[in-house]
Amino acid sequence: MKHQLDFEKPIFELQAKLDDLREHPEKHSLGISMEEELQMIEKKIEETRRQIFHNLTPWQRVQLARHPRRPYTLDYIHKTFTDFQELHGDRQYADDRAMVGGFARLGDHRVVVIGTQKGRDTKENILRNFGSAHPEGYRKALRLMRLAHKFSLPIITLIDTAGAYPGVAAEERHIAEAIAVNLREMTLLEVPIIAAVVGEGGSGGALGIGVADRVLILENAYYSVISPEGCAAILWKDRANAPKAAAALRITAKDLRELKLVDEIIHEPLGGAHNDHTTMTATLKKHLLHHLEEVLALPVAERLKKRYQKFRHQAYTREKTEAAAHKSHKPAEPVAI
Q1: SS3 for 195?
Q2: Are the beta carbons of 102 and 92 closer than 8 angstroms?
């Protein structure tokens, strides 16, 4: 049985009716041809799907970002890229299976692709640690990035994680330091870096491979400093307020684009990426190639300057007090936070 979200129920009910009618044509209504009735139901399904997915709430988009049938990083790697050769290990501690990466081709470009990988079932989720990498995962990612720099290969990162693993073992092996080093080193790498949030973009776990010249996000993905449930637990002392937190956090693709935290929204097939893997992977490939070729055209010095300015800008906010507003109509100077 297909995974069904609450707001998708009307679509599944209509689809079940359509399937039943096809299997048992003797049940169709009198006074109307079988073909006409099938067309009417198909049209109703399309209209219902369009109405639902054009009016999604932030929390519903979070649910879609976590959909278990959504394409994961390895799905994109095998369908968007070619000639993928996976590399393993951080050469210090272990091979973290929540972080995958290696050499590949994107169109005519040789690249290094890196991403966080979730599992489809319990066994694979245990293997992949539910997509939450340990410190060795981020050190493996950095090792691959340094290889890319050495061989002048662009870097593509695919982000889909609820966050870095927060357990005792990760703390013992210095998860914060591993992510911080990645942030620093990614600002200095001279090769182009393109990042795409394809599902969940949670906290430092996402940012640890997210410092890039261009940051793209799928229409129903999200990017946030904290999960809606975590925010609700802190502010309202109740995780049941996650829908309210999702709206307050402004974590949807549209909000992030307005806040200039991402560079482009990649639209998904109607009904979400999980409904059409082939179209979604082809669409991602087109956008990755477009941005990669634009960034490749920039001189290295200009590329690094723009990358630095891009993230430096995100560390500022503008505020104007009511008292200052009476004295001057000029906006306040940026204040570092």
Answers
A1: strand
A2: no
pLDDT in tens, 241-259: 999 999 999 999 999 999 8
CB neighbour list of residue 184: distance below 8 Å, 6 or more residues apart: none
pLDDT at 312: 86
pTM of the full predicted structure?
Answer: 0.86
- How many residues belong to the chain? 337
Question: Among residues of the chain, what percentage have pLDDT more than 90?
Answer: 73
Q: How far apart are the first and last CA of the chain?
A: 48
Domain membership of residue 236 (yes or no) is yes
**141 and 36 inside one domain:** no
Q: How far apart are CA 246 and CA 274, in angstroms?
A: 21
- Average pLDDT score over residue span 7-28: 77
Q: Give the pLDDT score at 336.
A: 44
Report DSSP letters for 6-44, one per residue: GGGHHHHHHHHHHHHHHH-GGGSPTTS-HHHHHHHHHHH
Report d(CA 142, CA 174) in Å as an integer.
15
27 and 77 share one domain: no
Structure tokens at 323: 């008292």
Q: Domain range holding 274?
A: 62-297
Closest CA to 182 of 149, 215, 211: 211
Same domain, yes or no, for 47 and 82?
Answer: no
Same domain, 29 and 112: no
**Residue 26 falls within a domain, yes or no?**
yes
DSSP 2: -
Are 209 and 66 found together in one domain? Answer: yes
Nearest to 5 by CA among 51, 82, 68, 47: 68
